[in-house]
Amino acid sequence: MEKGVVRESKFRHIFGKAWKKEACITNMSISTSAGLNVIQVNAQYIAVPWSTSSGGALAIIPLELRGKVPDRLPLIDAHTSSILDFRFHPFRDDVLATCAREGTVKLWKLPEGGMHKTMTEPLGVLEGHKSRVVSLAFHPVASDILLSSSADNTVAIWDVEKQMRATTIQGPGDVVQSVVWNMNGTLFSTSCTKDKKLRVYDARSGGGPIHEVHGHDGGKGFQTTFLENDRIVSVGFSKTSQRQISMWDFSGTDACLGTTELDINPSILTPHYQSATGVCTLVGRGDEVYFFELNNDAPYVHALSKSKCSSYNGSAPIPSRACDVKQAEIARFMNASKSGIEPISVIVPRKNAKTVFQEDIFPPAPNGEAGLSAAAWLSGSDGALPTQSLQPKGMPSVFSLSAEEGGKSLEAERKKAFKRTATVAQIDTVQEVPKMSEGKVRQYVGGWWNPWAQRWLVLSGQEAAAPALTVFETDESASASLVIPSSNMADIVIDEYDDTQFRIVMKNGKDHVFKASDSHSAAGWLFCINQLKERAEFRAQGGAASSSTAPTSSASCTSSAAVCDASESGGLKGHLEIYEQGGWFSFAGWNKRWWVVDGLVLYAYRTNDPDESPVENFHLDRVTSVTPSEYDAGSREFTFKLCTPTQVIHLAAESEADRERWVNGLLTLLLGEDAADSIVSGTISGACEGYVDKKRNGLLSLVTRSWDHRWLSVAKKDIYYYESHNATKAPLERLSLQLVRKVVPDQRDDRLFEVHMMDRTIHVHRAESEDERDRIVGHLNFLRQQFLNLFEMFSITDEDVAAAKTKPTPGFSFIDPTAVKKGDQLLLVEVHGRRRVRTQKVDVSVKSFRPSSVFILDAGTRIFQWNGSEAPRVCKGKALDVCSKIRTKERGGTIAHITLDQGKSSENNSDFWKLLKAQPSDVPASGTTAVIHMTRLYRVLGQEVDEGSRIKLIYEGALPRCELLSSKSCVTVDCGDELFVWVGKESVSYQRKLALALAKKLVKEEERASWATITREVENGETIIFKEKFSNFAGMLPINLQKKEQKKNTATAKAQEKIDVLKAMHHSAPQSESGVDDGSGEIVNMWRVEDFERYEVEPKDRGQFFDQESYIIHYKYMHRNKEANMVYFWQGRFSSRNEKGTSAYMTVDVSEDLSENEQTRVEQGKECAHFRQVFNKLHFVVLNGRRSTWSSDAAGLYRMVGTDHHKHPTQVHRSASSLSSLTAFVLADPPARSAFVWCGVGASDDASSRAQEFARHTIGPSGSVTVVEEGKESDDFWKALGGKKQYFRVSSKDECRPPRLFNLSGASGTIKVEEVFQYCQTDLDVRHISILDAFSAIYVWIGKNAPQAEKKMAVAVVQEYIQKSPFGHDVHVPVWVVNSYTEPEEFTVHFPGWSEKLFPKAMQGKRSSVTPFEELASSFSTKTFSYAELKQDPLPSGVDPTKLETYLSDGEFEEVFAMSKAEFRKLPVWKVEKMKQSVGLF
Fold it and tell me: Could you give the CA distance from residue 1421 to residue 1442 in angstroms, rounded to a whole number?
């Protein structure tokens, strides 16, 4: 494939996106013996060969099926031998054909609603072939025409409806590997394995091949597909077994136009060509999908990209009409492996795909109907497939937008498509015709002073319901000065005296004269307006309109049409008042009008009379913001305003509900149905507005007042300044957010802030208060980050990316950590600050030194620490810590650490000064204060996203958190004069090059020092200096600055105190939690955290939490008659580490905007009483998985958990083993509108009542709730639960003692026993021991890394606990030992929601049985031997020869050593060894 060459193509960034695991189809048994055809797909079904003894069965499953299929599927028992090929009927989703070795072709009709039982009787059998049938192909246009090829050297064409052979063609004398129709079904091609020939046949002639060429040289054969101009693309192998793709042209000399080498791989690839786009996808066996673009430009076959996926054995595309256009999905392939099916979406990244229909990549697609009948085709007729538009209703087409809005030219796309599909001869005959859709002209308006006025013309797109030419005063005007419906045009002519003028003659005799910039443009306007006129005439004559009814920005209609079509725009019509400024002959004031929205035009009428003409019109695509407002003039209460670049329209509704209806309706029209989730919605709905004083720039401020009072408003991508908040005129000034470099508070005044532009100009503002300033600055910075196109800002080109080396060599700008370790490159780091200690690289020069700081010189094999004479102790400690970490963690502890103190003898180290090429006297007496640079993080993504989104500023501030670093991306870290390129381990080559290209652009900026450096960092291999730039890198905790008393540089170990077992394990629940209030406050907002962003949760869904997600909740309440805030961040048990970290720092972000607040972390399963009290009102429930994959119709089992009076349901595995006698459970089946509430014998009344309440809420008030007591279950209950299984069960309420968990930990230096209340699985720490008291049994859980001392202590604790238990334990209660990662079910049933997802992957699925406690106890029991036995040779079995003295009894020990064991242990080591040697126990 071609590499390093960047072609201009709209599909350049195409990629394949594998669906998430939960969206795949699993539990399948697919046979791969059918050769290349392993899967077929149509608009309703998926067909796959099923593994059976005969190999002749097919499984049919619905296309929309997701997840696990049933263990037993109804099959089509098609043949007695292996199926060799099978195909769906292209125009009947319920019909398919199969063929096999017995030489027959069978037709099958699926029952309505899908397969319910195994089928054995076919719809029909096509007989006639004398040998096995190897391939099938339905006609692409004609209905009921099927082609089959056989090993008997014939190709048959069948009339399926009549079940008869229509034509037989003698084959090539070799077994046909593949057979393919051309686009209109007049030709078909065959490829053969042995003779390697590609042949083309006339399908109706019955003769031999009309074209025959030698295909690919490889011995595995090749696959083919036709293009529009009857060219053929083939994919095969070369002589050296390298896969290759070729294009063939049979229009003249039957030549191969070109061949592209792919790679060396044994699997055969099958091409799938999209005629609408020119994209060819290659699929086969393996784990990759290839994308190519085919056109008439040499070398004809252009490599685009390839995407990785799960390993698969075959693939098939779904029909184009079933693709998701809002995701820019141009194709979807279903990849089949032996055990399942994985969908792969083929995506062409488009920034506005959700709101604008990308018609240039989604042209009309076949609608599933045939183009002609079988009889018509057999009689010699040809046809084309009927198509349908894929444009969603209400979504504007990209062809209807202007170029400034990201629109495209329909005519230009048609021209490209023609050039791609036409023959060379056809292209040569095409004449260039200028095309105009909008542009600047001059209109003749009369008058003696200036008869020509500047105007902006817009032609409505082809989707417009009423085509028209709309005339605006400027390209930003919202109100059209003139609308000329094409139906009213009589003629359009060029002026005979001036070929730059064109005249539109109306049917009423009037005319409109316009003047273009040149004759070429005038001809273009003439051509396009004529096309518009012809389209109107065609529709007037009853012609079929476009299938798309989406209105365009320039849509216009008569007054009656506007009223009639208003219902299609969401019913936006009604009375509103408009404020008009007045003029020479009118007064300012409110005037009532009847308003109607038609398409994207807002019309105003004097009355609601349908025959009346509109008095005003506003084109909504020119609107920059829609916001509720308060207008000073008059007594209008419910006002809102529409802002455009040229004017502001103030409107007044009759009620608050009416205003809300208009504002929300207009926002929906502008942003689409998902307006609330749009980044732009905050700006278009006026989220950032307020009064500011703006300082004048230049000399004018010296002679006039220097400040202007302005109303600041952010709309779309601009900052607007108005005279006041109720202004109606155009804004006085406008700044583009895309040209804003930064927005910073001014330190000189609490109300000042500055807006710095790209051209180095600075706009100074003064807000009304400090809080108002912080609010505006925060909004502007957030929006600037969203709209910033860093590609344009830094002028990064494709050449810059291609030239960036992923592993730069040391040089002027680069620091290579490897070279630093070897000593080939010096590194000088300054440690400075008193309150906040910072480390930063500086120029390797003595001029960088100053007495108030500490400097670290890293010379590879040595590391020097120079302490300035005025440096604070905290800096010296920090420098010592950094040096120690570099020495131990980066250099293995093998390098020397040398300390130099300024002004002392230690400073005179010749090696140090030799490296710096200076002397101690060269150090400046005083230096400038160190500058602390703001840290900026730029996340770099790949080519799968559009260019403007590949580089995103994700952080600005002091010390960022390391959770911002994602393995799938690269991050350029800007710390002023030191830059880092951090490379994630899952990032691709393009991301790494782009991140480095960005760093190279940054390092060359004017404000950077000449010695500024770039360092490349790799995930999991980061340097200590890089980690210092973050606040929470593992192992980089801040040093402790408090003085500690030291004794001879040795730490004294704490003596192990005797554990009071009864006191430690006595049942003492924690004190009841006191919440901040009684839960009567208000949940202001709730966000879900995903991919380092937060998304609002709908109010109706705020009671639902998912265990794979994290959430942030803003709760407001009254405290001492003042408003207070609580910010909770709830973290699901299976939420990713990145999401948990993101939720934590985003909680800080939320809190910074609140005056008085607290932040509280809440873990799943450990919710505090106040949290449950707040959310139980919203039917608090914890569900499995993620919100995006959860289905409200799925049946589930829920356990009531929590403390009394605050219980809530949490979803558990739907199995009887999840039950427990201690609480209540809900088994809900929403589709059946039924639920069981199972109450264990120990369930409290609160648990039972809350379970019933939750059941009724889940299945609805009309559903059936059945309460079941433990021991009285019906067969229906056990059947719904999947059968009876062992669970934690007690026989009576008296025995209901909740299991208790105790943790043994020696982290504090001595081993302690502590009870864990409200425990869960995550409380088991593999570094320690836990004891689970289930009363009927006791389990000792041993962590994988637990120390021997804890194990020994656990034995003693359990033994004493059983003997002295005050809770009625039987002394013979069974005690079992359980090892981590192998816990049996009898242990895990005591942990609600137990999951092996928390295990390392290598340890999952390794359950084992418990082991007796006696085995553990015996391993720690020490036997005693006599002094004589210990002096024998050999020693007794199992005795440790290095600790012989420990085997003596206490009495004999005192006789031998003349002291007790306690006194002996206090002796120094040397004396112990000497005494042991003297008595012969050494």
Answer: 18
Phi-psi region of 716 (alpha: psi -120 to 50; beta: other; left: phi over 0): left
Which tens digits make up the pLDDT trace of 693-750? 998 876 555 555 588 898 888 876 788 888 887 777 778 888 887 778 788 888 778 8
Q: Give the total residue count for the chain.
A: 1482
Secondary structure of residue 667 in the 3-state scheme? helix
Using CB atoms within 10 A of its CB, is residue 1156 exposed (0-12), middle (13-18) or buried (19+)?
A: exposed
Coil vs helix vs strand at 140: coil
Its pTM stands at 0.39
1416: three-class secondary structure by DSSP: helix
- 1413-1420 and 1348-1364 helices, crossing angle to 10°: 120
User: Which segment of 118-127, 235-244, 742-751 scores lowest on mean pLDDT?
Assistant: 742-751
Question: Whole-angstrom Cα distance, residue 118 to residue 1467?
Answer: 85
- What is the arithmetic mean of pLDDT over 100-123? 89
Rounded to 5 degrees, what are φ and ψ at 681?
-60, -35
Tokens representing 194 are: 């042995």
Q: Is the pLDDT of residue 858 over 90?
A: yes
- The radius of gyration computed from the CA coordinates of the chain, to the nearest angstrom, equals 40
List the beta bridge partners of residue 591: 578
1363 vs 229: CA distance, rounded Å: 92
Distance CA 65, CA 1322 (A): 34
Tokens at residue 644, please? Answer: 């455009």
pLDDT confidence tier of residue 1070, bands split at 50, 70 and 90? low
pLDDT(563) > 70: no
Work out whether strand 452-459 and strand 468-472 pair parallel, antiparallel, or are unpaired: antiparallel
Q: Residue 684: what pLDDT?
A: 45
Q: Strand, helix or coil at 1388? A: helix
In angstroms, the CA 1225 to CA 359 distance is 52
**The pLDDT of residue 46:** 95
Mean pLDDT confidence for 1341-1350? 84
How far, in Å, are 440, 446, 517, 554, 556 from residue 511 at the CA level? Answer: 19, 13, 20, 21, 19
Read off φ and ψ for residue 1104, nearest 5 degrees.
-100, 120
DSSP 346-371: EE---TTTTTSB-TTTS--EE-S--S
d(CA 728, CA 637): 18
Return d(Cα 1181, Cα 1193) in angstroms, integer: 15
